[in-house]
Write a structure and sequence with these properties.
With 156 residues, the protein is mainly beta. The chain has helices spanning 3-11, 14-19, and strands at residues 27-33, 36-42, 48-52, 55-59, 69-72, 82-84, 91-95, 104-109, 114-119, 124-128, 135-142, 148-155. A five-stranded antiparallel sheet has the order 5-12-11-8-9, with no helix packed on it. A hairpin with a 4-residue loop joins β8 (104-109) and β9. It is elongated, with a radius of gyration of 22 Å.
Length: 156
C-alpha cells in the first residue's frame, strides 16, 4: 500500500473525533415566534459570537451550575452555608451548621427583582421554589449589621 493511502486511512477518522463536542447539559429548550425559532442549551462552552446593528448573541455560552459565592464581605468569610439541591426543581434546603440568629434569606431574579424573603429560623430551612419560573437566581443571606453573602441557584 502506498504511503499516501496509509496516511489517509490512519487519519480519516481523526477530524470527526476532534470536532465533536460532548457535554452534560443542565437544561435547554426551544423558543419560537413569528420572526423565527431557536434551540438553546445550558451547559455548552462558547464557540461563536455574532453581532450586527440589531444586537449580538453568544452561541453556546456556558451557564455553570453549582454553589458559587458571588459576593462575601470580610466578616462572613467563615460563614458555612449549603443549598441543596442545586439545580433544583422544587424545594430548596438551606443548611447552616453554625446557625446564626437574625439572618434573612432574600431571593432575587437576574433582573434584581425580589422574588421571596424570609428569616432563617433554624440550622435547616426548606424554601419552596416550585412556583418560580425556570431561571437563575441569587440567594442572599444578610443580617441587621449589613453583612451579606450571595450564592447562585438554578431553578429547572
Amino acid at each position: 500500500m502506498c504511503p499516501a493511502k496509509q496516511f489517509f486511512l490512519a487519519f480519516s477518522f481523526l477530524p470527526c473525533s476532534l470536532l465533536a463536542q460532548n457535554d452534560v447539559l443542565a437544561g435547554g429548550g426551544n423558543a419560537s415566534s413569528t420572526s423565527g425559532s431557536i434551540s438553546y442549551s445550558v451547559g455548552q462552552v462558547v464557540y461563536d459570537y455574532e453581532s450586527n446593528a440589531a444586537g449580538s448573541i453568544q452561541l453556546g455560552v456556558q451557564q455553570p451550575y453549582g454553589l458559587i459565592p458571588t459576593a462575601v464581605h470580610e466578616p462572613w468569610k467563615e460563614l458555612v452555608v449549603g443549598l441543596y439541591p442545586n439545580p433544583t426543581r422544587g424545594q430548596l434546603l438551606i443548611e447552616m451548621p453554625n446557625f446564626i440568629l437574625g439572618i434573612t434569606v432574600s431571593v432575587f431574579d437576574m433582573n434584581g427583582s425580589l422574588v421571596e424573603q424570609l428569616p432563617l429560623q433554624s440550622s435547616k430551612t426548606i424554601l419552596s421554589a416550585e412556583a418560580w419560573p425556570a431561571a437563575q437566581y441569587i440567594i442572599q443571606l444578610s443580617d441587621a449589621s449589613g453583612n451579606t453573602s450571595e450564592y447562585k441557584l438554578i431553578k429547572q
